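Next comes the chain:
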Amino acid sequence: MNLLKLEIVVLIKKYKKLTIVAEKLGIKQPTITFHIKSLEEELGVSLFELRSGRYFLTEAGEALHHYACKIDALMKEARRVTQEFKDFHKGAITIGASYVPATYLLPEIIHQFQCEFPNIKITLMVKTAPEIRTMLQNHEIDLGVISAAPFDESLLKQTIVMPDTLVLVFSKEHPFSKKENVSLQDIEKERILLHRNPSTTRDLLTKWMLAHNITFQSEIELDSLETMKQILKYGNGVAFISKLAIEQEVQRNELCYIPIPEFEFQRNIYTIHHEDRWNSKIISFLLHSITSYAVKN
């Protein structure tokens, strides 16, 4: 068994066509067929079955695929890390970030980093915090920057970058903007704009509602934070949003906010990486850039 055979297993699962797998690997289709038969003979089990011109993994193939993905991801990570040693000013970094840090923290940091290292390719993948933690555990990305409640997860090293405070947001025309004290009972009567699950914000809001026995009379679920902010500007309801995400709207006097009454839950922005990953000079420099930027701002 070699790395090429394992990569073929991964690609067949993904594309199900030998022509596509051959194209992705830059080799001829008969070579793919040869490696498939060779791998099945080596292991003594059937790994693939052909149905309607498409290849599917057998149960044994699925079991092998699980490990092939891990090995393939580790090899790609190893190539990225060793490339950084070859030339400090060349290479590639894949970052996974949840929406708030990806939108309101990382753009300027990435710009400054690329001015310093123009030949380093950066890929930024915007996912939920749970997805990013899974991708790190599977060695699919080099670094994660997430907004999350405090967590403890084996194999992942975390560093708090800055607090990410949730606040109660509404338009400048909303009655709350003229109210000195907003109670839990006042909030409960409002139409609430909610982040669709899965969402760290939604999870914390649910815990807060359960802790204070709150049930909103009217709810609107949204996938987009930007859509949520636009709806709020028309005076339609209230929402629980990261303070970082509304700084510009507050400065333009388009939205207002207050601390969430009796909200005891903490949320931070973290950098996270796999404890087994070698932190090269490039990754270390990027981590330092993120923490330095947060301190200055």
